[in-house]
Amino acid sequence: MAFRSQPSHLPLDSDSSTRFLPSIVALMVALLTFSIVGLAALHDSVGKWSGQIEGSLSIQVPPTGMADREPEEREQALQATVDDIIEQLADMPGISRIEELSPETMSALLEPWLGPDEIVSELPIPRIIEITPETGFNFDMLERRLGEIAPEAVLDDHRIWIERIADVAFSVELALMALIVVLFGATMLSVVFATRSGLSIHRTIIELLHLIGAQDSYIAGQFARHNLRLAFFGALIGLLIALPVSGVIAWLGMRAGWPIPTLVFSPLFIGIIIAIPFVVAGVAQMTAKRTVLRVLRRML
Question: What residues make up the domain containing 193?
Fold first, then answer.
């Protein structure tokens, strides 16, 4: 097995890389794990926001020109306008549901700011009509028909700002992907540096091994196994540091009212997290082996 200690003619365990490489790999893997967790959480949020885009329409019917009327007369006029809007828009293609937000619900929503229902009923509060669109919905046609039915009504399309937030989040996703690539590349550069340092330190022993018939593949295998063990150990430490810290951040987020992204519980995400030490160790092994073979061709 690659992780099992095997006899070696090179004293690699006494190199400075034995202390340097696991530390730098642990740091990089911790940052890499944070980036992957952040990417998963952000991607989950973007998916939820995108799903809300299709169901984010409402119509406000303000009591325009009714401020001087009695409350009862004003409410009757508003109700007549609301009923007319619902009746004429209900048969539009692309609308699966259209209904008024009840006055009781409006009062309950406004009570924390405006006080009890008696005060709310005395104020010229606009009526709200909620619309659930479906496939084939035409926003421009709805806006045009609403203008013909009730020019004072306002159509709120929350899709615009949701799309903008989703675009920003997508840009951050790309930045996190780039960061993951950079961190992975920096980890491999550390392996290359440690391997080259070991080759320089043990140049005399390597030349002696060549004189007694050792092949380049044998020497490269020694370095590859050495770096495999160091990189796996460092990656495991980095993962064990990152996961509890991510858990604390998630706990603080839950206390602040943020939902835990469902994507982090998916088998794919868990598999990616578990695979990180093995992937880093495997790539470190291949990187070290190729580095040694390339340097040995120039050295000897």
Answer: 13-51+162-296
